């Protein structure tokens, strides 16, 4: 369950704060306007505030101002244009289609622009029902703009006052998702769970975790001007370091299960991971409450049990290599878990006081870690071609709205065509899977919302009760719109139907008409989801090649870091972030493809394995880094560098040939990849050791390097299979 759906954390989440801010702004602007003007004027001002409120999301203050200002300008222009065209039906229909197309083209600017697209299409549909003279259109637009500017000023003021609070809430969300990530890893020790399915679940959650961590970076790393901000910054950095340690815990779970299935140690390891997840949640819980976090969980019993079991196993296990290998894996896991527990202690400490200096970014350019906000016309112009998925989506929406308007004109009752158009706009999304999910949520939510509204009107038809439900629905709509859209659909149906009941209480067919309009809009959106469709498999070659390219750069950065060639790990962190982002993009495409018709699915198993193997590269590098840190005094740097240099050359060669094959350049078959063994550094170095296996930690380094090379070789096989299946 999502952390924000738990009552213990819901009222401290930024989702609930958004709902309160949204409702307070809308109700406040409307009530203030009613003191000086009529209800009709107040509703126009309210709609202006509503369109701007759709852009009110957690963002850096400068970005928020730019985004909300763009909404004010664009929505005001659309309001004026549609109002002026309304008297001429043919011109109005033409402008509706044109604006729909242009609004959908705005998604070239990324997912942050999608609320702006929705706001534009929303005000377009709300303005199409009112025929006005030119003077009335300008007055109407002026009132709309006034409401939009009022909410802009209100939202910026509240966001400035709560800027530190919002950072805490977004950081806490990333910590909660990290705890959920550990919960998934804990189940690797439980033999009831299939390893392959569990690993797929882990990789899926990785995409969500990467998104939450990026949201935290964007807010926290852009500015840290005071003592409170410094606490959030150091907690955030400690969280990222903890995340890398967690990555390093990936090991040979199959071997542990095979040789230690009858041992209680697997249950103990599971309990340790579960406790670690709850410990991280306690930090997140305290962060949302703006107070320092202190350790309350003890791991002593489980750690003592692991030590006892290790001693028992050492006595019982025979000299057979597989069993000895399992014991070595268990010892390594014990060491990593101890390091994670220590880092969680540092996470608690980071929330308590300001450190003397911030880690790794002093005098560094943080741009590569942050999302960039660029709105350039050439980005739209570059997608004005039939091969562009965004262009095809824009055409699809324009055609669907045209069809929706035509159907509305044929309905036997006095249909409100704007409701059909709005349903199409909300359901029809760039991908088939998103459209499918949104259609289900919209229909179910509308049906439930209509039933709730009918019950309220039938049994609680009192002004005070209706006003109370109206305010509750107004809070719930933005709260759940990014959390659970189905709940938001219920709330928005109740909100709109109650508003219309207050305005026109005598319309007894209102709820039935809304249901019919919703089903009509959903049917039109579903039909057009197949028109000029952009199937996910078409983007797979680009995404796969991007992952390979970023993996190559990541391996170079990790090799430099492990060999001590840099003064810090800044470059490594950048490339690790880019690799995780590219894997998250590929994984999201895979998940969406699984919701598409079976005939449009390609290379599902190979894509999944490709993602897994790249994820394992990150896990192996994180493990190598932890081993080198732990045994830094025992392993000579020269010997280590010699091994890492050989390993890096081989892995880079493998990845480079995979990239060349993806681009259609001549290359050797994947199975022909050179599998040169790692050279024996004792013979090639001047470290002065006759037996390099006597170095503490050296066998662990060798084993990780072998795994790294093996998984890199598998990447070539799976990438070639993906491209072959797509073609």
UniProtKB/TrEMBL annotation:
Residue ranges of every copy of the Integral membrane protein YccS N-terminal domain listed in the record: 72-340
Keywords: Membrane, Transmembrane, Transmembrane helix
Membrane topology: Multi-pass membrane protein
Compartment(s): Membrane
Region (Disordered): 660-695
Domain Integral membrane bound transporter positions: 406-526
Transmembrane segments: 15-34, 90-109, 138-162, 393-411, 447-473, 485-503, 515-535
Protein name: FUSC family protein
Native source organism of the sequence: Pseudoduganella danionis
């Amino acid at each position: 369950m999502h952390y924000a759906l738990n009552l213990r954390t819901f009222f401290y989440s930024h989702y609930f704060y958004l709902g309160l801010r949204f409702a307070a702004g809308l109700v406040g602007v409307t009530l203030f306007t009613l003191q000086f003007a009529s209800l009709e004027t107040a509703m126009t001002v309210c709609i202006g505030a509503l369109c701007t409120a759709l852009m009110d999301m957690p963002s850096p203050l400068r970005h928020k101002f730019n985004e909300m200002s763009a909404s004010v300008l664009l929505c005001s222009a659309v309001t004026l244009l549609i109002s002026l065209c309304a008297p001429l039906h043919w011109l109005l229909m033409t402008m509706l289609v044109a604006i729909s197309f242009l609004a959908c083209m705005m998604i070239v600017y990324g997912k942050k622009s999608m609320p702006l697209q929705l706001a534009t299409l929303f005000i377009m549909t709300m303005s199409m029902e009112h025929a006005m003279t030119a003077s009335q259109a300008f007055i109407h637009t002026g009132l709309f703009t006034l409401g939009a500017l009022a909410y802009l000023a209100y939202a910026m003021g509240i966001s400035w006052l709560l800027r530190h609070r919002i950072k805490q809430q977004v950081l806490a969300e990333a910590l909660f998702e990290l705890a959920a990530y550990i919960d998934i890893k804990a189940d690797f020790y439980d033999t009831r769970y299939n390893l392959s399915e569990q690993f797929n679940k882990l990789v899926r959650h990785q995409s969500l975790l990467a998104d939450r961590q990026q949201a935290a970076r964007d807010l926290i790393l852009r500015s840290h001007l005071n003592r409170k901000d410094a606490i959030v910054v150091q907690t955030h950095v400690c969280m990222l370091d903890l995340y890398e340690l967690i990555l390093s815990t990936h090991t040979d779970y199959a071997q542990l299960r095979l040789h230690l299935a009858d041992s209680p140690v697997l249950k103990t390891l599971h309990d340790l991971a579960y406790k670690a997840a709850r410990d991280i949640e306690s930090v997140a819980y305290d962060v949302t409450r703006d107070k320092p976090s202190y350790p309350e969980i003890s791991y002593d019993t489980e750690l003592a049990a692991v030590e006892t079991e290790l001693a028992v196993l050492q006595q019982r296990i025979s000299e057979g290599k597989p069993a000895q290998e399992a014991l070595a894996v268990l010892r390594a896991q014990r060491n990593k878990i101890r390091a994670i527990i220590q880092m969680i202690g540092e996470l608690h400490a980071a929330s308590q006081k300001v450190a003397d200096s911030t880690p790794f970014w002093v005098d560094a350019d943080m741009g590569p870690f942050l999302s960039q906000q660029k709105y350039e016309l050439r980005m739209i112009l570059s997608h004005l071609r039939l091969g562009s998925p965004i262009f095809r989506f824009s055409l699809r929406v324009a055609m669907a709205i045209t069809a929706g308007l035509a159907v509305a004109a044929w309905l036997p009752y006095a249909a409100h065509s704007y409701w059909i158009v709005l349903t199409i706009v909300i359901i029809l999304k760039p991908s088939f899977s998103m459209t499918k999910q949104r259609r289900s949520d919209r229909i179910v939510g509308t049906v439930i919302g209509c039933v709730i509204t009918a019950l309220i009107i039938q049994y609680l038809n009192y002004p005070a009760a209706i006003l109370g439900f109206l305010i509750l629905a107004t809070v719930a709509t933005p709260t759940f719109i990014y959390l659970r859209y189905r709940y938001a659909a219920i709330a928005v149906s109740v909100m709109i139907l109650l508003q219309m009941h207050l305005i026109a209480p005598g319309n007894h067919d209102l709820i039935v008409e809304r249901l019919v309009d919703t089903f009509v809009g959903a049917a039109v959106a579903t039909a057009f989801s197949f028109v000029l469709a952009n199937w996910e498999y078409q983007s797979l070659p680009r995404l796969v090649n991007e992952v390979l390219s970023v993996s190559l750069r990541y391996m170079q950065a990790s090799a430099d870091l492990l060999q001590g060639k840099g003064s810090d790990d800044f470059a490594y962190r950048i490339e690790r972030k880019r690799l995780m982002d590219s894997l998250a993009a590929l994984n999201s495409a895979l998940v969406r493809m699984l919701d598409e018709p079976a005939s449009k699915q390609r290379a599902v198993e190979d894509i999944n394995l490709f993602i897994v193997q790249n994820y394992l590269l990150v896990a192996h590098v994180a493990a190598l880094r932890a081993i080198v840190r732990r045994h830094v005094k025992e392993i000579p740097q020269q010997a280590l560098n010699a091994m890492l240099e050989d390993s890096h050359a081989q892995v880079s060669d493998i990845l480079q040939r995979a990239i060349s094959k993806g681009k259609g350049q001549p290359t050797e078959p994947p199975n022909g990849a050179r599998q040169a063994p790692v050279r024996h550094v004792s013979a090639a170095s001047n470290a002065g050791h006759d037996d390099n296996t006597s170095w503490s930690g050296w066998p662990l380094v060798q084993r990780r390097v072998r795994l790294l090379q093996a998984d890199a070789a598998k990447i070539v096989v799976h990438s070639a299979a993906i491209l072959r299946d797509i073609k």
